[in-house]
Design brief:
By secondary structure, this protein is of the alpha/beta class. The protein has a single domain (about 5-140), classed as 3-Layer(aba) Sandwich (Rossmann fold). Helices cover about 40% and strands about 15% of the residues. A six-stranded parallel beta sheet has the order 3-2-1-4-5-6, sandwiched between helices. Helix 1 links the parallel strand 1 (about 5-10) and strand 2. Helix 1 packs across helix 2 and helix 2 (about 35-55) runs antiparallel to helix 3 (about 60-70). The longest helix has 20 residues, at about 35-55. The two termini are about 30 Å apart. The mean pLDDT is about 95. It binds nicotinamide-adenine-dinucleotide. The site of nicotinamide-adenine-dinucleotide (NAD) has 24 residues, from helix 1 and helix 4.
């Protein structure tokens, strides 16, 4: 299965950084947060991160513009319907994460991979909320400047 479209839930410190990584790598990114100001802040931070990459000569202006153009800020989980991979980066709370994944499973295709960026919760505990727990993975990112 080819991954083209990536959904990210949570546009805080991790979600905005993860979004930038995937945008730079050529993916379409749909970014969702329950808080509108977090989304606006993430958009600003991604714009600024891309500008820095262009200033450093790591990407051309055209490439950063194309990457920014692949970012979609969304307000409803229903918008994730066509995503191939969804990465959760919300508050570190088991019940809140389980409720989110339960909701996502009803929206996405059977092939869509569901990933949690949790730092401390067992993936199996989060996956227990799913009808198909085998579709769930843990995903961790090391944080360093490009
Ligand atoms: N290296 C790593 O991979 C790494 C490092 C730090 C944190 N984490 C994990 O990443 C996750 C996010 O951490 P962070 O530091 O970005 O947090 P953060 O507080 O900066 O951002 C969390 C965002 O999620 C939003 N949110 C909370 N509940 C939501 C919901 N139900 N639906 C939509 N949006 C919701 C909040 O509004 C906030 O903007 C946590 O699980 C944390 O443990 C992973």
């Amino acid at each position: 299965m080819e991954i083209k479209s990536i959904g990210i839930v949570g546009a805080g410190a991790m979600g905005s950084g993860i979004a930038q990584v995937f945008l730079v790598s050529g993916y379409e990114v749909l970014l969702l947060d329950q808080n509108e100001s977090a989304l606006a802040k993430a958009q600003e931070s991604i714009r600024s991160g891309l500008n820095k990459l262009a200033e450093k000569g790591k990407m051309t202006i055209q490439e950063t513009e194309a990457a920014f153009g692949r970012l979609y800020l969304i307000s409803k989980t229903a918008n994730f319907e066509k995503c191939d991979l969804i990465i959760e980066a919300i508050v570190e709370d088991l019940d809140v994460k389980k409720a989110l994944f339960k909701e996502l499973e009803d929206i996405v295709s059977d092939e869509c991979i569901l990933a949690s960026n949790t730092s401390s919760l067992p993936i199996t505990s989060i996956a227990a909320a799913l009808q198909k727990p085998e579709r769930m993975i843990g995903i961790h990112f090391s944080i360093r400047p490009f």
